[in-house]
Amino acid sequence: MVSFEMNDRKKIGLGLTGFGIFFSFLGIIFFFDKGLLAMGNILFFSGVTLTIGLKSTMQFFMKRQNFKGTISFGLGFFFVIIGWPIFGMILEAYGFVVLFSGFWPTLAVFLQKIPVLGWLFQQPYVRSFFDKYRGRRVPV
What is the chain's mean pLDDT, rounded? Predict the structure, then answer.
């Protein structure tokens, strides 16, 4: 039996990841405000690092099959910082999809178990879409 212990470091990491997503969302809503987008990126990356650990984070981003996503995400972050937020967010979005495409089936199962949203994700058309990509990476 697998035991998932939620220590304080992981709780803080999940909080930082959530705040990172929130600030990125606000940055997009406020017409690609580079300050909010940069803050969101920093919080997201530091949250992921705290949640899964520095070694696991480095292994994930440095895998050979993840290089394309890592480079896209890093360049996107760089372009947000230097003042080209729209181009940077496009690169980051591409990198995010490439990096985390293997997690979509797991996310789909999690979303189906949420009380209100679960009903939506259990509909036949949505479910068939997620079943189509279950167990394989999206080709990019």
Answer: 86
Using CB atoms within 10 A of its CB, is residue 97 exposed (0-12), middle (13-18) or buried (19+)?
middle
Give the pLDDT score at 79: 96
The answer to whether the Cα torsion of 85, 87, 91, 97 is positive or negative is: positive
Q: Tell me the torsion sign for CA atoms 27, 114, 134, 55.
A: positive
CA distances from 55 to 49, 74, 133 (A): 9, 18, 28
Q: How far apart (Å, rounded) are the C-alpha atoms in residues 140 and 19?
A: 28
Strand extents, DSSP E, the chain:
none
Model confidence pLDDT, tens digit, residues 29-55: 999 999 999 999 999 999 999 999 999
Residue 106 pLDDT? 77
**Among 101, 98, 102, 105, CA closest to 127:** 105
